[in-house]
């Protein structure tokens, strides 16, 4: 089966991890610090806190922003459930705003109609690798005293209007799952423009430990002392994962180039094919294409999905609207809430897209899909 996504691991990646195994630190060591510094540089120079997954990054971000009961988080339904569930688990009410019909990115006009004085965070998702419209979302957030959050699990390495992902919203979360644009095995990171928010994210992911003597509430305990002021969790990335991530970062430009080449081949092959609609690129965005979300028209998406899988091509669907999940439906969210997102879901099919995909693999995907919809 040709997978729809796959990690690209080199001998240099393996050697980087092996070097850590031969060293003194397996976790919370120099590789983690170096990886966080490298992510910060990539993301506009802001504080970066690494962690165990993209979901952990979202939990950290919402906690660092003070999200809790009585707050509202406005977000998109066209995402993996963690974008919403990480806010809900802290007690916030999730408010779903519809997406742009062409790009599946959060629609600023829909957000503007839904924000209230209770809105704490506007959380957009860089669907398929394109940065959302943060230049339009930020003034909306500022007007109601909220913060913007970029769920950039798909888009690390991309830019919008010349600014890197990580510099577009108040807080940005990243994912380094194997199918993402670079990997640490499992892993993620939070990037924070405000250093105080970054410090809260760090302490939350580090079991709540405070190690700054100037902040201690218990004095004269000795040089070993550390204390907890607020509850936290252990979401710390290991040096093993960080070493892999550092090695992967050296190939990020190569990964981006190959993903762009494959996307261009798909676009050219499917242009004008009846029954298919190619992705729409937003002006001013240089995407780090993570998905290739072709749209299968005429109500044939499931048929095509099943026949592509039968032909040995691992297509996927990204994503079921979040509020369709029973955990949200049981709370009263109803189908029909976001028509654009639901229509996009009904047509979306993610084709194989990863750096090690060969041209012959791409041609096989193209020929199979064109034959099936013909």
Give a written overview of the molecule.
The chain is α/β, with parallel strands linked by helices. The chain contains 13 helices and 15 strands. It folds into 2 domains: 239 residues, Type I PLP-dependent aspartate aminotransferase-like (Major domain) (Aspartate Aminotransferase, domain 2), CATH 3.40.640.10; 122 residues, Aspartate Aminotransferase, domain 1 (Alpha-Beta Complex), CATH 3.90.1150. The strands form 4 sheets. A 7-stranded mixed β-sheet has the order 1-9-8-5-4-2-3. Strands 7-6-13 form a 3-stranded antiparallel β-sheet, with no helix packed on it. It has a 3-stranded antiparallel β-sheet with strand order 12-14-15. 50% of the residues are buried. Helix content is 37%, strand content 15%.
CATH architecture of the largest domain: 3-Layer(aba) Sandwich
Q: Ranges with pLDDT <50 over ≥5 residues?
A: none
Strand order of the largest sheet: 1-9-8-5-4-2-3
Task: Say how many strands there are.
Answer: 15
Number of helices: 13
What assembly state would you assign to the polypeptide chains in this entry? single chain
The coarse silhouette is: globular
- Biggest sheet, open or closed, and with what strands and sense? 7 strands, mixed
| Percentage of residues in DSSP E strands | 5-15%
Annotated CATH homologous superfamily of the largest domain? Type I PLP-dependent aspartate aminotransferase-like (Major domain)
SSE order: HHEHEHEHEHEEEEEHEEHHEEEHHHEH
Number of domains: 2
N- and C-termini, Cα separation: 23 Å
Kindly provide the name of the CATH class of the largest domain: Alpha Beta
User: Do you know the CATH topology of the largest domain?
Assistant: Aspartate Aminotransferase, domain 2
Q: Give the averaged pLDDT, no decimals.
A: 98
- Helix/strand/pairing class, anyone? alpha/beta
Helix content: 25-40%
Rg over CA atoms, rounded to whole Å, is 21 Å
């Amino acid at each position: 089966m040709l997978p729809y996504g796959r990690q690209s691991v080199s001998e240099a990646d393996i050697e980087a991890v092996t070097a850590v195994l031969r060293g003194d630190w397996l976790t919370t060591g120099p590789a983690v610090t170096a990886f966080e510094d490298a992510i910060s540089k990539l993301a506009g120079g802001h504080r970066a806190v690494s962690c165990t997954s993209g979901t952990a990054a979202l939990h950290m971000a919402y906690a660092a922003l003070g999200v809790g009961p009585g707050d509202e988080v406005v977000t998109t339904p066209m995402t993996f459930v963690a974008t919403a569930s990480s806010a809900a688990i802290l007690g916030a009410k999730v408010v779903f705003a519809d997406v742009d019909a062409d790009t599946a990115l959060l629609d600023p006009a829909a957000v503007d109609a839904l924000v209230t004085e209770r809105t704490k965070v506007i959380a957009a998702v860089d669907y398929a690798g394109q940065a959302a419209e943060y230049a339009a979302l930020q003034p909306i957030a500022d007007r109601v005293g909220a913060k913007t959050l970029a769920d950039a699990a798909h888009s690390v390495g991309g830019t919008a209007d010349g600014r890197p992902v990580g510099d577009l919203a108040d807080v940005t979360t990243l994912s380094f799952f194997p199918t993402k644009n670079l990997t640490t095995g499992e892993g993620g990171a939070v990037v924070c423009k405000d250093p105080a928010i970054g410090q809260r994210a760090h302490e939350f992911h580090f079991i709540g430990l405070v190690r700054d003597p100037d902040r201690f509430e218990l004095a004269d305990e000795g040089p070993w002392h550390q204390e907890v002021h607020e509850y936290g969790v252990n979401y710390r990335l290991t040096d093993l994962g960080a070493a892999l991530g550092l090695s992967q970062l050296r190939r990020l430009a190569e990964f981006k180039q190959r993903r762009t080449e494959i996307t261009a081949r798909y676009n050219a092959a499917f242009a004008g094919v009846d029954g298919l609609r190619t992705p729409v690129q937003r002006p001013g965005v240089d995407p780090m294409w993570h998905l290739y979300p072709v749209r299968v028209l005429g109500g044939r998406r499931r048929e095509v999905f099943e026949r592509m899988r039968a032909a040995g091509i691992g297509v996927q669907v990204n994503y079921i609207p979040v509020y369709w999940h029973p955990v949200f439906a049981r709370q009263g969210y109803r189908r029909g809430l976001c028509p654009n997102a639901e229509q996009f879901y009904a047509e979306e099919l993610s084709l194989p897209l990863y750096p090690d995909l060969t041209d012959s693999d791409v041609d096989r995907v193209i020929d199979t899909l064109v034959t099936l919809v013909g």
